[in-house]
Recover the amino acids of this structure.
C-alpha cells in the first residue's frame, strides 16, 4: 500500500505532534507500506528527501516563520496555503499512484478529502487539537471555520482524541468518527530509560536532598508555563524546577522568575532533543502540566510511562485516564497536591502505560481502517 500523508507538523520539528506523525510513518514503513509525506517547507530544510525510507516533500511554507502558527496572520496564510497545496498536488501527483490519503492537520483535511474523492481512494482525517476545545478564547471566525471543516472537510474516516470533539464532528459529518488512543514512541522511551544517567542529570539541576520538577513543552499561551513558576514559589526551598522548551512566552516565563526572585531554583533549558527531554523526565521526581488546554498531551503519558509522578490540569483526554501517579487539579492547587503526593519514584518502566498508549496502537487503528 502507498499512503500519502498531509501534515503541517513533521520531521525535523520537535513538537509532540511532529514526533507522533513521524513515528506513525516509521511504523507504516516497517510494516511494508510506502509512505510519502507532504508538509510545509521550514527554514534550512530541503525541498525533498528520504529519511528512514519515508519520502518527505516540502513544496513551500505555510506561514511566516517569525509568527506562531495560531496567530491571525498565520491562520490566514495557512488557509491560503491549503488551497495552493491542492493545486500543486494536481501537478505533482500526476502519474503517481496512492492507495489512501491521510491528513493530520486541520487546514489540510479538506485537501485530503477532495483528493480522495477525486482519485476514488479512502481519505482519513485525524483531529487532535481544535478551537472547540477552548471556545471561550477563540474568535467567532475560527469557530465558524472549524464548523465548516467538520461539516464539509472531513475524510471517509475521522479519528479524534477527545469524546466531546468526536460527538461534535459526528453531529455534522456523515463520516465514520472514532476515538483513537496511542501517542508514545516505544523505542525512544525504552532507550531513554535503559540509558538513563540519573545521577549526572540530578547533580546538574538539584542537590541530593532536593526534589526535581520538570515542565516540558512549547512556551505558548495555551501551555501556561509561567504558572509553573508560581507553583514553585509556593513550594519549600527543597524543590527545583527545570523548564524545557522555547516559544513566544519565554519573556513571560522570565518575568515570572524575576517577579518571584526564583533565579536560583529555576533552570530554563530552551529546546532540547526528544531524547534529552525524555532523559530529564526520567530523572525527575515530578512532571508539571499547567496547560489551559490540551487534547492528548504526549508529555503527560511519557512521564507516566517513565515512572514519573504527573501533576496536570484536567484537560483533554486526561479526565478519562485513571492512573495512581496522575494527579489532576486546577493549577492553583498544584503546590498542595505536590506536597501531599508520594514522590518516591519507581525506577522501573511502566510497561502497562507504555503498551496501552503506544503509537503502535494508533497505527493499528489507522492502517486497519484503510485495509478494511
Amino acid at each position: 500500500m502507498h499512503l500519502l500523508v498531509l501534515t503541517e507538523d513533521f520531521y525535523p520539528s520537535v513538537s509532540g505532534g511532529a514526533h507522533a506523525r513521524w513515528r506513525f510513518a516509521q511504523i507504516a514503513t516497517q510494516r511494508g507500506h510506502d509512505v510519502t509525506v507532504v508538509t510545509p517547507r521550514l527554514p534550512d530544510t530541503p525541498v525533498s528527501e528520504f529519511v528512514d525510507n519515508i519520502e518527505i516533500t516540502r513544496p513551500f511554507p505555510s506561514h511566516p516563520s517569525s509568527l506562531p502558527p495560531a496567530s491571525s496572520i498565520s491562520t490566514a496564510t495557512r488557509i491560503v496555503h491549503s488551497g495552493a497545496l491542492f493545486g500543486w498536488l494536481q501537478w505533482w501527483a500526476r502519474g503517481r499512484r496512492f492507495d489512501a490519503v491521510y491528513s493530520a492537520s486541520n487546514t489540510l483535511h479538506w485537501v485530503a478529502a477532495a483528493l480522495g474523492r477525486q482519485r476514488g481512494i479512502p481519505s482519513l482525517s485525524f483531529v487532535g487539537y481544535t478551537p472547540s476545545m477552548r471556545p471561550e478564547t477563540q474568535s467567532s471566525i475560527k469557530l465558524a471555520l472549524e464548523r465548516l471543516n467538520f461539516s464539509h472537510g472531513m475524510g471517509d474516516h475521522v479519528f479524534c482524541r477527545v469524546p466531546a470533539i468526536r460527538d461534535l464532528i459526528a453531529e455534522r459529518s456523515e463520516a465514520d468518527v472514532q476515538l483513537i488512543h496511542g501517542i508514545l514512541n516505544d523505542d525512544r522511551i525504552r532507550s531513554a530509560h535503559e540509558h538513563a544517567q540519573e545521577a549526572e542529570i540530578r547533580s546538574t539541576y538539584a542537590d541530593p536532598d532536593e526534589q526535581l520538577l520538570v515542565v516540558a513543552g512549547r512556551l505558548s499561551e495555551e501551555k501556561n508555563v509561567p504558572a509553573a513558576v508560581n507553583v514553585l514559589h509556593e513550594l519549600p526551598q527543597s524543590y527545583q524546577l527545570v523548564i524545557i522548551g522555547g516559544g513566544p512566552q519565554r519573556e513571560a516565563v522570565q518575568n515570572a522568575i524575576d517577579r518571584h526572585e526564583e533565579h536560583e531554583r529555576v533552570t530554563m533549558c530552551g529546546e532540547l532533543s526528544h531524547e534529552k527531554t525524555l532523559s530529564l523526565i526520567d530523572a525527575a521526581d515530578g512532571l508539571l502540566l499547567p496547560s489551559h488546554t490540551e487534547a492528548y498531551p504526549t508529555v503527560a503519558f511519557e512521564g507516566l510511562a517513565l515512572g514519573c509522578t504527573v501533576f496536570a490540569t484536567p484537560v483533554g483526554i486526561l479526565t478519562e485516564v485513571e492512573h495512581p501517579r496522575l494527579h489532576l487539579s486546577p493549577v492553583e492547587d498544584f503546590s498542595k497536591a505536590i506536597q501531599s503526593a508520594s514522590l518516591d519514584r519507581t525506577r522501573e518502566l511502566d510497561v502497562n502505560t507504555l503498551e496501552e498508549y503506544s503509537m503502535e496502537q494508533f497505527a493499528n487503528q489507522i492502517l486497519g481502517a484503510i485495509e478494511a
